[in-house]
Specification:
By secondary structure, this protein is α/β, with parallel strands linked by helices. The protein has two domains: 46 residues, no CATH class; 178 residues, 3-Layer(aba) Sandwich (Rossmann fold), CATH 3.40.50. The strands form two sheets. It has an eight-stranded mixed beta sheet with strand order 6-5-7-8-4-9-10-11, with helices on both faces. A hairpin with a 3-residue loop joins β1 and β2. The N and C termini lie far apart (98 Å).
Length: 287
């Protein structure tokens, strides 16, 4: 809110969270110099660090982020990792492109600490042995399946109200922006991390999530992560991360690489079917 009088301009900035309302006031006389106005603006920004940040600087959250397990990605995320108490949108170009592998370091740490990991409406059957192979203790997994989109939203809200989880992974391909706003407000009451998986086709839609990542599978088991929204300046380029692969996939890629090396080293011969006559060879013999 801005109030203008004959002597000064007063700016009232509110930061409304689920449990608190913060107020910052900037009062600038018309006669003040540009340097004085800049100094007061910096004081205003410092008074609400989680609600206001400069466009060329990285923002922050109420709580520090959880490390992602990838140093290059942590450097690009506000708070140095996955933010708690807010929605984190992970947009994928194809389902099953590596959702669990990307989050494996974080989920591994949570399960080792005995915290509950909630999987809500995954599109494919969850293969427990593969999760165990990447270090996730499946004893701390809670799987919730729903049939209708409305039931999914209700289930997400109930989990957020419980506030007794370490991470919530939910697949909401049909969620609308107003649905996400409601979930974003509910997430403020929890201390866990909330990951919402949606298709890449919605990347141009508005979203209240403060962090949105566009992910896709890359060669050699890597994952390309592009930050399309964060509290900070625009990201320069996608980040390549190399998550741990389940043993079955790792062995398959290794065999494929060895086979490719053999094909590159072995000489190539033009082998023709037995019923084909090589005219050039016949001409050479006849000569």
């Amino acid at each position: 809110m801005i109030a203008i009088t004959r002597q000064k301009i007063t700016v009232y900035l509110y930061s409304i969270n689920s449990n608190e309302i913060q107020l910052a006031v900037l009062s600038t006389p018309f006669t003040s110099s540009p340097a004085e106005r800049r100094s007061q603006a910096h004081l205003l920004a410092a008074s609400l660090p989680h609600a206001l940040w400069r466009g060329d600087a990285m923002g922050s959250h109420r709580s520090s982020g959880r490390p992602t397990g990838y140093a290059t990605l942590d450097k690009e995320l506000p708070g140095g990792g996955w933010p708690p108490s807010v929605l984190t949108e992970l947009l994928w170009r194809q389902q099953g492109g590596g959702e669990f592998r990307l989050l494996a370091p974080t989920l591994r740490t949570l399960s080792a600490a005995g915290e509950t990991i909630v999987l809500l409406a995954p599109p494919h059957q969850v293969f427990a042995p593969a999760l165990a192979q990447i270090g996730i203790d499946i004893k701390h997994l809670l799987l919730i399946q729903t049939e209708k989109p409305a039931d999914r939203l209700w289930a997400v809200e109930q989990v957020l109200k419980s506030a007794s989880f370490g991470a919530l992974l939910c697949w909401l391909p049909q969620a609308r922006p107003d649905h996400l706003r409601r979930l974003q407000l509910a997430a403020g009451n929890s201390e866990g991390m909330v990951f919402v998986f949606r298709p890449a086709a919605v990347q141009l839609e508005s979203s209240p999530a403060p962090l949105r990542l566009l992910c896709q599978a890359a060669p050699a088991g890597q994952i390309s992560v592009e930050i399309i929204k964060r509290r900070g300046p625009a990201a320069a380029a996608p980040i390549m991360v190399a998550p741990q692969l389940p043993l079955v996939i790792a062995h398959a890629l290794k065999r494929q690489a060895v086979s490719q090396q053999v094909d590159d080293v072995a000489p190539s011969f033009n082998i023709l079917p037995p019923y084909v006559v090589d005219r050039s060879l016949s001409a050479a013999i006849a000569a």
